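name: query_chain
kind: protein
chains: 1
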Amino acid sequence: MDLQTFLEYDKALLLALNSDDNLFLSHVALVFTSGLTWIPMYISLLFLVIKNNEKWSRIFLIMGTIAVSMLISNGLNGGFIKPYISRLRPSFDPSLANSIELVNGYTAEGFSFFSAHACNAFSVAVFFMFLVRSRMLSIFLLCWACITIWTRMYLGVHFPSDVWSVLLLERSMLRCATLDIAACRAVLRPSLPMLPTSTPQQVTA
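structure:
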């Protein structure tokens, strides 16, 4: 399959996921794509870090690692990849002018490839999933990241390949950040439910 065929499939998938004038889903997408909606979650993650670490140096280490990870990914994206690829967003693509549905006129500036929303969401999700190793938290963060990428396609501001390509990037970044994650795991010990362990009983003769 050549590139042109792939791009046509990409557009077709976008149109299938794009807004269908469903008022409820449109409202959900607008709310969930806003960073303000997820402020309580960010505060909760910060509380998790602070609660399980007594020294501020450890807290700054963990939060600094997340900040640097997002700074690198966003800097690489906005400073090099997007300008180099120069892919128009679906809402500005002339070939989709009569097909794409915008929700309340919502659009975004800049180029399309790749999605900064998806990149940031998966950066945070992957970091805490491998750092905390809590099944419940991992499921929640994975759902949050998937909802984030769904909203970008539903709102017509990113092609499917713009958001799913982030998974490949995150996999590469994760390999490079293995040592950082291992180091942070050593300083973050969340209180998670532990399996019951049997204690040896003293046998008296």
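note: The two ends are 78 Å apart (CA to CA).
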